[in-house]
Input
Amino acid sequence: MSMKKDKHITMREAKERTGLTSRQIRYYDEQNLIFPARSKGNQRLFSESDLQRLLKIKKLLAAGNSIETIRLKMKTPQAKEIDPYAQLSEFEDSINDYADEELDSLYPVSNRFALLKKLTFNDHDINDQEFEEEN
DNA sequence: CTTCTGACA
DNA sequence: TGTCAGTA
Output
């Protein structure tokens, strides 16, 4: 049974889906942040994970991270499959990424990461308040 | 017409 | 990073 078909993504689609310029994408490739395959004509063939990485890179870059920092932070796709902790680390990163978003109400639980972090963050504050009220 | 590499106001 | 050149 085949998994998801690794449909080759062209540079054009990569640009459209990431909002990055071809110049930026090639530069990130040159910096070994992504590892797209190549066609016989030396054309870059991006995978779905490459697109995800590009979006991640765009986000980290906008957050003020350097290329070097991002390279260390994201490791290689290979390491993610082998190292179990890489996945946990990735999950923690996801929490930090999404938890910064505002959370007005607890009802629209569309952002579970924000909710999770908000709960863990206010945990001691809530206890302090309850402690004060009880005394 | 689009992508690729190398180079540079 | 943008962009121009010269290919493929």
Notes: Chain A has two domains: 1-74, 75-135. Helices of chain A lie at 11-18, 22-30, 48-62, 67-74, 77-82, 84-99, 112-134. Strands of chain A lie at 37-38, 44-45. DSSP finds seven helices and two strands in chain A.
